Amino acid sequence: MPSGTLLYAQSGGVTAVINATASAVIQSARARRVRVLAARNGILGALREELIDTSKEPIAAIRALAHTPGGAFGSCRVKLKSLKDDRAKYERLLEVFRAHDVRWFLYNGGNDSADTALKVSRLAREFDYPLACVGVPKTVDNDLAVTDCCPGFGSAAKYTAVSVREAALDVAAMADTSTKVFVYEAMGRHAGWLAAAAGLAGNGADEAPHLLLFPERPFDEADFFAKVRATVERVGYCVVVASEGIRTADGGFVADAGGGKDSFGHTQLGGVASHLAGRVKDALGYKVHWALPDYLQRSARHVASKTDLQQAIAVGAAAVDYALAGMNAVMPVIVRTGEAPYRWTVQPAPLSKIANKEKTMPAGFIRRDGYGITDKARRYLEPLIRGEAPPPYGRDGLPQYVALKNVPVRRRLPDFVL
Amino acid sequence: MPSGTLLYAQSGGVTAVINATASAVIQSARARRVRVLAARNGILGALREELIDTSKEPIAAIRALAHTPGGAFGSCRVKLKSLKDDRAKYERLLEVFRAHDVRWFLYNGGNDSADTALKVSRLAREFDYPLACVGVPKTVDNDLAVTDCCPGFGSAAKYTAVSVREAALDVAAMADTSTKVFVYEAMGRHAGWLAAAAGLAGNGADEAPHLLLFPERPFDEADFFAKVRATVERVGYCVVVASEGIRTADGGFVADAGGGKDSFGHTQLGGVASHLAGRVKDALGYKVHWALPDYLQRSARHVASKTDLQQAIAVGAAAVDYALAGMNAVMPVIVRTGEAPYRWTVQPAPLSKIANKEKTMPAGFIRRDGYGITDKARRYLEPLIRGEAPPPYGRDGLPQYVALKNVPVRRRLPDFVL
What totals of helices (H) and strands (E) does chain B contain, helices first? Predict the structure, then answer.
């Protein structure tokens, strides 16, 4: 039994399967008799010494985490500066690690979190403290470098493709006398991965979704209007999937999610779907509807991808292996080892190659006209949404998600003002 | 084998299970060797003589309808006036019925469609034409009179409760450093049934959703702000579910779905969720997010309620029975015959008691403070979302929905200009 504590924390936007990673981390560590604490709200909990004793949770609860969306220990949106600029915080971290004998730190998040993990990994050398820091991948945005895909993306992608296929059937049925244009807004501020996944819902020019809008391509309103009109005239209706972060050629966002002010000075929130729907209505006169699933798309554990779930579990287990083997500043990444049949494995990669990088869609994934995905993109995306892994449902017709007790560890240090 | 043709049509907003009703209608009629035509786009297809020969569909396709959302034959939003005011249309209908030997007409829809069915039922007496017209219930709004519930509602209700439960876990995880208030917009222009269903996702004052807003209760913004603030201060975050049709005490909609114009004269679309989120941000300063699932909530066959599916099938089969038995101007309605365990049966009810009526939530279903549901509402709603009935998924990870061939019947009449 290795001596020391493993500290696990969740960071950034949560996903349908980040708790599956947590479940795998805790189960792997328990199997090796390693004590696991979890930080409440990511790195904040480590700084505030708000730690949770996962040994107080029965194994059934830890197993149930694998089918529970959200972030069971709380997450955060916080970025640490460099060791030089934020030295007091790193010293505090070290104090907390020492006080609780933390030898392994697993930070489960996206690009920013990989950066935090990389910085924390430097504590080992800087302060000569025996620490292995492992980043664990997670993001519905699928924009981490090095890894073939990101746990959390496959399930959000499946949600997107399923939802767009279903809504398109609704629109098709009503188009003769009602809505002719439907706009679905997908997450993706800088990368169009989720909008691309919607493309899996149909095939060919006449099957919905008809138009995908990617942040990787400049948005040209006149061209878009022409495409919408041509689709309605040919098919009878038009389903559009827009990435929230599409920009015009001058680099400005088509719609600022933060919104503007109305004539009374009130905040007018709105996204790209509502904006495009309004513009289409004015310019083309069609009846429009739009949907903004927002958090629903990243928490929809009920329609999770089995592939995604398996990968979320695999990176959790690998992270424990790497940490206990003393590997510092690494992240378990997913490597695609076969196309047909799809195969994958998990390997370690240096955090320095992942932190702060952002993987947008390769040009070869976007159709020449900019409004759809290529066969190459389809081959990449399709295995990621494959397989179903529904949660157990109760007699009440609802998924049985677990709420942990989250018993705090007794604090040993004075307060720390962030 | 009864002589004559049964004509089936879908009307109004479609649902996740209206095609299950269609599947039951066609299978029941086939079992009795009755020919079934379907009108394309509801009553419009009957007027335009755009009829579909369902006998051209293999039985596998008809069975697959039971797990396919949308409206397989097309639907419409059209209301006929009285026999007196729209006489030419009724005469045309009669011509079409005669030309295709239509003796039974099944109209599958909500309140407006029940009104159309009632008017068509009068053709029998008015023109001495042997016709049995049966309305078949369907609506996610759950606002039909007489019937205990409406096929389509249970699945939309399940989607709502599941989605709100999942999104709430996301918000809970992030609230410390990110979104504190989340607003989900549910369909329901005049009746708060879907917002009420969200209430099934949690129990007690601290479990999400924390605040439900019903069109049945006047919206008081100051009181709402106070409740939001109190919830955030007590729980750490606040999940709000708003019916699209909430109104202030003076009867005006809180947010017009049609939207207004911005200072450039452009249409500014927006719903109640975006409006409330903006107001909360301005008044209370919290970070807000909101979701507008729109058509997703009524087409989400992937998370359909088994109870709802069974009821959709049962009303389809009953409608064929009633029609072939010569019952005119009736609708099969669902009668609750037991509470624990929940039991139900299907009975005929006169269309005249259903047409144009709207069933809002009983006062006893809304909590005294107006922001939640009572135990009575819970007992009513919970059985309706019970049970899962997922569609088959393909190797590609997507639900396998069927597209019918929809082979048109050769027209026998000249065009009719509507």
Answer: 13, 13
